[in-house]
Amino acid sequence: MIELILPTILSCIVAFFVVFTMTPPLITFLEKKNLIVKDVNKKKDVMVVRPGGPSIIVGIITSEIILYAFLQMNEILAIIITTTAAFVIGYVDDRKVMGGWFKPVALAIAAVPIIIFGAYDSNLIFPIFGTVQIPVLYLVLIIFMIPITGNTINSIDVLNGVASGFMVITSFSLSICLFIVQNYEIAIVSLPLGFVSLAFYKYHKIPSKIFPGDSGALTLGAMYGSIAIVGGVEIIAAVALLPAVINSFLFLSSVKKIVEHRQVKGKPVEHTDDFRLKATTDKTAPVTLVRLILASGPLSEKQVGYAIFKLAIFSGILAVITAFLMEMHFEI
Amino acid sequence: MKSNLFGFLFAMWVLIIIGGGIIVTLLGPVSISGFGDLDWLISSVIKAIISIILVIVWILILLKLKNMIFRKEIKS
User: Are residues A251 and A273 in the same domain?
Assistant: First the structure.
C-alpha cells in the first residue's frame, strides 16, 4: 500500500498541471486557427474556442504512463488505448460533422483493446445479492459500455462547465467507491480522470474560455467507462453516472431513435428577455434533463449548472452507499 | 420539480438494486450439461436472452415511472 503513494501523488500532480498549463496556449492556438463557435446562451455575441480535447488527452496519457512505469498493469494500457481512440473519434467529429451512428459504432470498436488485453473480469458484481458469471454476455457489455459512457457525457455538455464539473464529481465518487471495495490499484489509476477534469473545469466553467468539444467529452466518458470495466465496478459507475444517464434516457425516449442533437429540430430550451433559460412548450422538442430542471421556471445558466452538480453529488452518494452494500455482501 | 428529479434518481437506483437481485437469482443457477463443449455457449445464450428480457422490462418500468413522476412537466 505504501509503495503506491508516490505514483499516486506524482500522477495526480502531472494530470492536473499538464491540463492546467497546456490549456491556455491551446486556447491561443485555436483562436489563431479561428476554431471558434458562438456561445448560444450569452446575450452578446460571445465566441468560444473548441475543442479542448487535446489538452485533456495529453494530461490523461502522461499521468497514466507514469502509473504504468510504476505498476506495469495491462489495465492501464487498455485504458490509455481505448481513451486515445475515443479522443480520435471525437476529434474527427469536431472537425467534420459525422452521422448519428458514427460515434456509437466507432466507440464500440474503441472498446476492443480492453478485450484484447484481457483487462476485465466476466463476473458481474451486484450489491447485496452477489455475483453472476456471464462470460459471453460480458464481452457484449464491454462493447456497449464505452459508447454509452462516451455519448452520455457528450450529451450533458450543453452548458458552460457542466461536462467537466460533472466529471469532477462523478469520477472522484467512482475513485472513492474503488477504495471502498478495496480495489486500490484501479482506484489510483482512476484518480487522474478527476484531476484532469478539475484542471479543465478552471477554463470551462462559466464564462467558458474553451469548450471540450466531442474530443474532450468522449475522452472523459470513454476513460470513465474503461475504469468501470477494468475495476469491476460497472454497477457502481452506472449509479454515479445516473443524472447523465437520465438525460440520455429522456432524450432517447422522447425522440425514439439514435440521432445527433444538432439534427433535432424542436428546441427544448429558449431564452427570456434577460437571457435566462426557460423550458419551451414545443411538442416536437426532446425532453432533456435541463428542460425538466427549467420546468418550474426560468433559471440562469449558472443556476442550471449547479442544479446538475447537486444531482451528481446525490448520485455520487448513492454510488458510495452501493459500494458499501457490495462490501456487505463480501463479508456475508 | 427538482425534488421529482431526485425522486426519479432514487427510483432508478432502487430498480438497479432490485434488478441486480433478480439477475443474480435467475441467472446465477443457470448451468447446462450434456452438450459437451457447447455447454458454456448454450448457458451463455440462455443467460443473454434472460438478461435482454430483464433489461427491456427495466426500461418499460422506467418509462412508466418517468410518465408518473414528470407527467405535468412533460405535458407542459
Answer: no
A87 and A142 assigned to the same domain: yes
Which residues, 6+ apart, have CB-to-CB distance to B75 below 8 Å? none
The partner residue sitting opposite B1, judged by closest CB among A140, A246, A292, is A292
Is the domain of A223 the same as that of A272? Answer: no
* pLDDT tens-digit series, residues B43-75: 878 878 888 888 888 888 888 887 777 766 655
User: What mean pLDDT, rounded, does chain A reach?
Assistant: 90
Range of the domain at A275: 261-301
Nearest-CA distance from A56 to chain B in Å? 29
A291: nearest Cα among B9, B5, B11? B5
A134 with A268, same domain: the answer is no
Q: Is residue A140 within 8 angstroms of chain B, CB to CB?
A: yes
pLDDT number for residue A230: 96
- Separation of alpha carbons A145 and A29, rounded Å: 34
Is the pLDDT score of A150 beyond 90?
A: yes
